[in-house]
Amino acid sequence: MESNLTQAYQTLFTGDLPSAVTQLQLAGDTLDSSINSLSSGQELVSVSQNKSIILNNNTRMILSDFGESLANLSVAAQDIRLRLQQTN
User: Fold this and answer.
1) Residue from 34, 35, 28 nearest 5 by CA
2) Which of 4, 8, 34, 41 is positioned for an S-S bond with 70, CB 3.0–4.6 A?
3) How confident is the model at residue 15 (pLDDT cuts 50, 70, 90)?
4) Would the pLDDT of 35 be above 70?
5) Is the pLDDT of residue 86 over 60?
């Protein structure tokens, strides 16, 4: 996403507005994908805590940690999107 934003800035600076818009749209798509990861991360944490599912403790810890990481990444992406919208 940062790469798309950097390319958008550079192409906008050179006056290539259509390419800058394309790069911004790609960055937006990446953010959308990251935001969708929030629910996936929350689901993994939920599965790791579900005692009716037979998993060993190591698997539960991996699922929980990975789910929390996905959720945190999604929250950070959402924060970036809000900041970008405020600058428009």
Assistant:
1) 28
2) 41
3) confident
4) no
5) yes
Please give the DSSP secondary-structure letter assigned to residue 83: H
The verdict on pTM exceeding 0.90 is: no
Q: Give the C-alpha distances (Å, rounded to integers) separating 66 from 35, 47, 52, 53, 75.
A: 15, 12, 20, 17, 14
CB proximity list for 7: less than 8 A, separation 6 or greater: 19, 23
Roughly what angle, to the nearest 10 degrees, separates helices 17-49 and 2-13? 170
Q: How far is the C-alpha of 4 from the C-alpha of 54, rounded, in Å? A: 42
CA-CA distance, 39 to 13, in Å (whole number)?
Answer: 37
Structure tokens at 6: 């950097």
Residue with tokens 């937006």: 28
Written as six digits, the tokens of 23 are: 């790069």
